[in-house]
Structure formats: structure tokens, C-alpha cells
Amino acid sequence: ETGVTQSPTHLIKTRGQQVTLRCSSQSGHNTVSWYQQALGQGPQFIFQYYREEENGRGNFPPRFSGLQFPNYSSELNVNALELDDSALYLCASSRDPAGTNYEQYFGPGTRLTVT
Amino acid sequence: GENVGLHLPTLSVQEGDNSIINCAYSNSASDYFIWYKQESGKGPQFIIDIRSNMDKRQGQRVTVLLNKTVKHLSLQIAATQPGDSAVYFCAEREAGAGSYQLTFGKGTKLSVIP
User: Fold this and answer.
1) Which of residues 50-79 of A touch B (CB under 8 A)?
2) Are strands B108-113 and B10-14 parallel, antiparallel or unpaired?
3) Of B47, B99, B109, which to mutate for an interface test with A (greatest number of A Cβ within 10 Å)?
4) Is the Cβ of A95 closer than 8 Å to some Cβ of chain B?
5) Burial code of B11-50, b = ≥16 C-beta within 10 A, e = fewer?
6) How far is CA A26 from CA A51, A107, A108, B61, B74, in A?
């Protein structure tokens, strides 16, 4: 088990609603990345946060936003939920955003269901 | 728990045999590659990594081979055990990218037959 934790474990929302997912990074890690994993697919990069700023973004619309706090924990916010947003949302932390410490450690994920 | 294995290529292996999982990557600019294991209901677990200046790296019971000429990556698991049953993903990172963005493959489901 990694030291990355996520909450909640499961969540059910209605189309059009907003959701906030939370992630606590592993001790000593200052970088948090978020991924979306649809059923039967590999994870897709949403964005990364480093020193409380967005440090790279994948092909996701602006209604996907995030925050990183001084203790390096992070939130993923999704506005105007759509049915296709139903997925497992994974958080991964690493010691650096891009350096010699490449390894990313994943949390268990939050399963979001949009009805 | 999560069924991450739907619609994925499946490899069935007898317990004790060696397993080979293959991955074709797309970006010739990728400089770093990782294999992850994902069990049902869990996040991906780091197995082994390799940088593009290497063609082979060994860990405990696992070996990763990298062929940059044909953009191919493989994971070899020696003496496969029932606990190895999971979905395996390869992931690549593009060289020079400021953020640590990983691009994952589609995954292969490994089933170990006792």
C-alpha cells in the first residue's frame, strides 16, 4: 500500500451537479497528478499540481479544475457533471514533477457515478 | 470492487510458468517507461521502470525489456503466482515534458491458473 489516500471511496451524483474529490499525497512528495480511468481503460492524465500551481494539463475541458494546498494535498473539482464523467478518479503523488525522482505512487481512487 | 479487466486482452498462464506481457508504445520521444499492476478495487501499483538509455532492467521476479527500434516494451514475470493475477499497464513519459504526465496503454489482464 502506498501512502496516498483519497476520499470519498464512492460517490453518486446527478448530471449537472458539481463534485469535489480529495487526495493526500505520500509523505515527502510535493507533486500530485490526477487521472481519470473509465471502465476497461487505462488511466488518462487530467492535470498535475506542483507548488500549488497547475503544472501541465491533459485533454480535459475547463470544468475540470483543481487545487493544491500548502501541505501538498489536492482537490479535483468537476462542474456540470456529465454521464461520461462516470469513472474511477486516481490521484498519484511523486517527489518531483519532472526530475530524477520519476516514480508516481497511486491512491486507491474514487469511483464516481453520474446518473 | 472495480472490474478493471473488462474488454481487455487476456493472458492465461499456469501457476509456476513464466508470463510475458507486451506493450507497443506510440511516442518515439518518450524517455521513461513504467509497468503498473492494478488489482480489482485498487489503484495502479508500481512494478518496475526503465529509462530509454537502457534495454533491460531486472527486479524481483520481473524483467522489463525495451526495444526502441520497434517501440516495444515487455514485462516478464518469472514463476507466475496466483497473486500476480491483475491488469497490467505500461505507461510512457515524453522526454522534456515539464510535467510528469504519463500516457497509459490499454492494459492486459493476466489470469493465473492454479
Assistant:
1) 50, 55-56, 58
2) parallel
3) B99
4) no
5) bebeeeeebebebebeeeebbbbbbbbbbeebbbebbbbb
6) 15, 9, 13, 26, 29
Given a contact cutoff of 8 angstroms between Cβ atoms, the answer to whether B60 and A62 are in contact is no
In DSSP terms, B42 is beta-bridged to none
Quick check: B30 and B50 in contact, CB under 8 A? no
Give phi and psi for A61, each to the nearest 5: -70, 165
Residues of B with Cβ-Cβ distance to A108 under 8 angstroms:
41-43
CA distance B84 to B75: 12
- The CA distance from A11 to A25, in Å, is 21
- Helix (H) or strand (E) holding A22, with range, is strand A19-24
At B25-70, the pLDDT tens digits run: 988 888 889 999 999 888 999 999 999 999 999 999 999 999 999 9
**Over the stretch A59-91, which tens digit does the pLDDT of each residue have?**
999 999 999 999 999 999 999 999 999 999 999
Measure the CA–CA gap between B103 and B90, rounded to whole angstroms: 8
